[in-house]
Design a protein that fits this description.
Layout: E1 4-9, H1 15-29, E2 32-39, H2 59-65, H3 68-88, E3 91-98, H4 101-108, E4 114-118, H5 134-141, E5 146-149, E6 159-163, H6 168-180, E7 188-195, H7 199-215, E8 220-226, H8 230-241, E9 245-249, H9 256-260, H10 267-271, E10 275-279
Parallel strand pairs: 1-2, 1-4, 2-3, 4-5, 6-7, 6-9, 7-8, 9-10
Antiparallel strand pairs: 5-10
Helix pairs in contact: 1-3, 4-5
Length: 280
């Protein structure tokens, strides 16, 4: 089960959707949602020029130390989060942390089961349009899975594609997803494997994965595809099934990690219309 959810809050347009998804998961599992705001050191006032800062301030203490601009934005993000959580009737906590966004998120995930965040996390209040590598670092290094939401995909999650290649990353992701079942077990599931002219082996692989999901309460259909690049096959399957989420290993044999986090905005993150549930 999923009992503790972390949602990363920033000024981008997809944060409200991420919050609603986190709350939807919390309602399914009677879980606690933590809203996390991260600020850079340059937005924190120190008492002396040589002062040092700890990344483990209590929320109220750190809020008092912020510059007026950062304080206003942090309070607004936390206030909106609190209002939505209160209206939904879910248990929640609020956190403000200072430092490198990816590091602070990874630290917080030591005590959470699932991270929910938007597809364009910036966390740079002075530069809201700047692209960062936060997303890739978090997915790569955090202990628990990451759910990257799309701005135009509202909860609930009703259909998802599990991209499975049999490798260690895909297997760990399958296990974690089945055991946490963050979106429940009654959604429509498509198990997808992309192979190179090995249809029989592909069918056997999918059958074993299907049996594993069935043991955890999921009913699923299987799809074996030959030939195209994995990210193309995944995107096509999502479009054919009108799925809301792709479940995939971020370091899979099919090189999903490279496809997802290339040197520029990479194909799967850029072209796939569904949210991404990723684990390593």
């Amino acid at each position: 089960m999923t009992k503790r959810i972390l949602v990363a809050l920033d000024p981008d347009a997809d944060t409200p959707v991420a919050t609603r998804h986190a709350i939807d998961v919390a309602q399914r599992h009677d879980a606690v949602v933590t809203g996390l705001v991260i600020v850079e050191a340059r937005h924190v006032e120190t008492e002396s020029s040589g002062g040092t800062l700890s990344s483990v301030y209590h929320t109220t203490s750190l809020l008092k130390s912020l510059t007026s601009e950062a304080q206003e934005r942090a309070r607004a993000l936390l206030g909106t989060f609190e209002e939505v959580a209160e209206d939904a009737g879910v248990a929640y906590e609020k956190r403000v942390r200072q430092g490198m966004p990816s590091r602070r998120i990874i630290d917080e995930m030591t005590y959470h089961d699932l991270l929910v965040m938007g597809e364009t996390p910036h966390y740079l209040y002075g530069q809201p349009g700047q692209q960062t590598k936060t997303l890739a670092r978090v997915v790569r290094d955090t202990l628990a899975p990451t759910f990257i939401v799309r701005e135009n995909r509202e909860p609930p999650i009703e259909r998802f594609v599990v991209a499975f290649d049999g490798g260690p990353s895909a297997a760990r992701t399958l296990h974690t997803f089945a055991q946490l079942h963050p979106f429940g077990t009654d959604a429509d599931v498509t198990l997808l494997h992309v192979h190179d002219d090995l249809p029989n082996a592909s069918e056997r692989l999918l059958k074993r994965a299907q049996e594993y999901l069935r043991a955890h309460g999921f009913a699923s259909e299987t799809t074996s595809v030959e030939g195209p690049a994995p990210h193309e096959a995944i995107t096509e399957c999502v479009e054919d099934t009108d799925s809301d989420v792709v479940v995939a290993g971020a370091r899979s044999v099919s090189r999903l990690h490279r496809f997802t986090f290339g040197s520029n905005t990479a194909p799967l993150l850029e072209d796939c219309p569904a949210g991404l549930f990723l684990h390593h």
